Amino acid sequence: MICYSSGEVGVPLTADTKGRMLGLFILGIIVVCIGTNIASGITRSLVSERWPRASAQVVASAVYQDGRDVAPRWEPVVEYRYQIGNRTFTSRRIRFLMSPMYQPQEANGIAEGYSLGSVVQVAYNPANPSESVLEPGLPPGTLKQVLLVLFLLALTSYIYYEIRHPERRILLRSLPDSIFESRERTSTSTPRFSKRPDFASSVTPRATDTSEGSAIASSMEE
User: Fold this and answer.
1) Cys bridge to 76: 48, 88, 107, 187, which one at CB 3.0-4.6 A?
2) pLDDT per residue over 85-97, tens digit each?
3) Where are the domains of the chain?
């Protein structure tokens, strides 16, 4: 039985198409999560430009390495303390959109700009003073992140287009239906084993010759 996708007549939902739709669904979830995270960071970066400023003192400044086995990344960590009214707050946020750093020089350059014990200016959220950032506004590399999201959205849309139009596929190539049919036959067919011969039933009992037996018995009596 051939199923067709709802909303469009003539597009069969084969095993190949169902697998691609599942992969597309997972890719869509990943793209939405990445896009939401970047959009939230851009919004907060723009809003932070209008936040009031306060003096803060750097209490820690270092660079840490992460991901040694796969792709080593370096992360600058700057901890600073500031006071708003009678309350003291501590934060480690440098930027709202901190891109991964795969070169130690870039991370060291950021950490060296905030040496231990130095006094810096931070922007804090007046509605929530515990939320602050050292570098308000859009950081360098924001355009690359936006372009990455746009590329992933375009790729997801194009993959969906190719799935709905098999005759125009370029990136995706459908496997022949005969492969899936042969797999279904192999999985549903019952394995055949050669039957062990029944030697007891195949042996023909030997007939007894009564005349020969009587002759031997008479000769023994004599």
Assistant:
1) 107
2) 999 999 999 999 8
3) 1-49+137-173, 51-136
